[in-house]
Amino acid sequence: MRQKNSDKPSVRDRIVVAALDQFHTEGYNGRGVQEIADAAGVPKGTFYNHFKSKELLALDVLQLYIEGNSPEMLLDTSQPPLERLRAHFGFISRRYAECGFSRGCLLGNFSAEMADVSPALREALDKAFGDWTQGVASLLREAQAAGQIDSRHDPELLARFLINSWEGALLRMKVVKARQPLDDFYDVCFGVLLK
Amino acid sequence: MRQKNSDKPSVRDRIVVAALDQFHTEGYNGRGVQEIADAAGVPKGTFYNHFKSKELLALDVLQLYIEGNSPEMLLDTSQPPLERLRAHFGFISRRYAECGFSRGCLLGNFSAEMADVSPALREALDKAFGDWTQGVASLLREAQAAGQIDSRHDPELLARFLINSWEGALLRMKVVKARQPLDDFYDVCFGVLLK
Lengths: 195, 195
Hints:
Two copies of one chain form a homodimer.
Chain A: H1 9-26, H2 33-40, H3 44-50, H4 54-68, H5 81-97, H6 106-114, H7 119-145, H8 155-176, H9 180-193
Helix pairs in contact in A: 1-2, 1-4, 4-7, 5-7, 6-7, 7-8, 8-9
């Protein structure tokens, strides 16, 4: 959580958790403050004691979602770089398998729905993708130093491409409601690109 | 257009064109029927003479968007396959450059926002992505026959991957508001994969 209201942390957290579920299944505009408050089991007035707007809530929701993807796995050097990258995407994949390959990535969903209309969300998404890119680029540099992948690749460019392609695979996964797009991603990225 | 109301084709078309602009800039849930009718310059009652629901309108909007991407370019054998594929993505890119790298792909936006909540849109998106994949796969088979790319690639798998990655690049483009994600796509796809 980005920020806690020290006198009522549990209510605030409950709202963020409920909103993550609501935004992830119905989209940002698919759910209003009333429905989020209902899902959290709090009166609408209580909602506004904790969040001045749905947009500010969405920033906390984004942070909670990112934490759930365990981005710190990328930095765990107890595993060789490429195995770690595969484990990272595998860990995230399991979140989608659990819900029938629906929902997709909240970063991607918010990008599609909100990047043009909410400067605050666009900025938060840019930072989130940027941080993720840095983590993957750092891992790719390790993989190059370890001779796991071609040293001629530009790690930053390849990291951006991998993350963008992953996001695209998750969009298609939502449409086909199956893991094929994720398998395609693994096949091409780990079988062809990261050699 | 999927279907025309023979007595008032121009009004129907005007609604679809206005809705494409509205959905593309604000998202499906970001605009209601009243706002779409206003943008088309027709009374709300007239809207419902032509479309029983916003969801049915969205199916026509999707079709109009796809036609605007000129998918027939993929089949124009007067150009060699890979040059044609690059020209295809280049043609679509120009649509985004014209609006400051915002909006993104309507197929991707609808996938993110609506694939889980509208079975009709999910089905239409699945067909659209499937048709597009077939076009690209056919081109890749040509490219293999012409010796332009490695014959060991599975053309269907590679076509799905390319389209999904393109969709991911467009999501990131909406966030960074620049063409870098498109350039990354070209660099990796045409510079590394399609060799």
